[in-house]
Amino acid sequence: MNDTTDLPRIEAIVVGASAGGVEALMNLLGPLRKGFVLPIIIVLHLPEERRSQLAEVFARRLLLPVQEATDKQDIEAGTVYFATPGYHLSVEQDRSLSLSLEDRLHHSRPSIDYLFESAADVYGTRLAAVLLTGANHDGARGLAQVKRHGGLTIVQDPEDAQVATMPLAALKIQPPDHVLPIHGIGRLLVELERIAC
What we know:
By secondary structure, the protein is α/β, with parallel strands linked by helices. The protein has helices at residues 21-29, 54-61, 112-123, 140-148, 165-173, 182-196; strands at 12-17, 40-44, 66-68, 80-82, 88-91, 97-100, 127-131, 152-156, 178-180. The longest helix has 15 residues, at 182-196. The radius of gyration is 15 Å and the shape is globular.
């Protein structure tokens, strides 16, 4: 399940996290080199009532360009996109981002499932989906959808996660391609980018 010798060519990476996610994402994205070519689209559960500063915080710490996603924005190579609090974030067929106000999923908007399922429809076998630490079940169904479309699925090892509920929920629905600690996921992303170049 954790063999990296036969990895697919990936065009985009989607990531979902909740409780404990800021630290996990810093550990995951921090080591990525300048010039990393794959776009990374992230849903991290945050309170809806206040403006997110995630893009600003991560932009100061990462070597990659970081943006808060905007509606109808084209997805650019090598850019990290964070979902806006209060809006679902999805990927459109023309490889652009879309914000919407549909009902909450798992009490969350943005929802990880919403992002994962839309990206699976667009990228199919060229998508890698990563589910990290979190305290609810959001992302488990979306990860299974990525798998059904032939994409690569990666779950943080529950023993490595600050809150194991979300990884465990994903493992219960369907075994992913890889179950790894956060630093192992980071190494896998580097290998995926090497293959994509």
